[in-house]
Specification:
Blueprint: E1 7-11, H1 14-25, E2 28-29, H2 34-42, E3 51-54, E4 57-60, E5 63-67, E6 76-80, E7 93-95, H3 102-111, E8 115-122, E9 125-131, E10 137-140
Parallel strand pairs: 1-6, 7-10
Antiparallel strand pairs: 2-5, 3-4, 5-6, 8-9, 9-10
């Protein structure tokens, strides 16, 4: 039996990091449902401290998600954790932009806070490993 999944990335600031990744991938942030959040607080299922304002919207403090505009890829959730990233990721995203676009994407993403970590090559294949603003790795191919 096949299962669906989402990718979850730990973050000390999930809402700004979701914004960064949505822009990096050309994806969209999932919309917030302020009425639902307000109802959960009003009914005692959540505390006011579980919420915050981000870009003028009421959101859950604990996380933010992005999705492919057509739904053709798994959802990516950015989850609040108290500690910053300290070691290399064991899992990362490989973002396929096309060999002719890698240099421009590296320039665009480093201009938005990414850091170049490594230029790799295996046979005819090349890639650039970057870190997002919180240090999570991704490869551009």
């Amino acid at each position: 039996m096949a299962h669906e999944f989402q990718v979850t990335i730990d973050s000390t600031a999930p809402h700004p990091l979701a914004d960064w990744w949505a822009e990096a991938l050309g994806w969209e942030r999932e919309p917030t449902d302020e009425a639902f959040i307000r109802r959960m607080v009003d009914e005692g299922h959540a505390a006011e401290s579980d919420t915050m304002r981000h870009d003028g919207q009421l959101v859950w403090t604990a996380g933010s998600a992005i999705r492919h505009p057509t739904g053709a890829a798994p959802r990516v959730l950015f989850q609040l954790v108290p500690e910053p990233k300290t070691v290399k990721n064991r899992v990362h995203l490989d973002v396929r932009v096309g060999a002719e676009h890698v240099a421009a994407e590296v320039e665009r993403l480093t201009g938005r806070g990414a850091t170049v970590l490594h230029h790799g090559r295996q046979g005819p294949y090349t890639w650039v490993t970057l870190a997002d603003p919180e240090g999570n790795e991704l490869c551009l191919t």
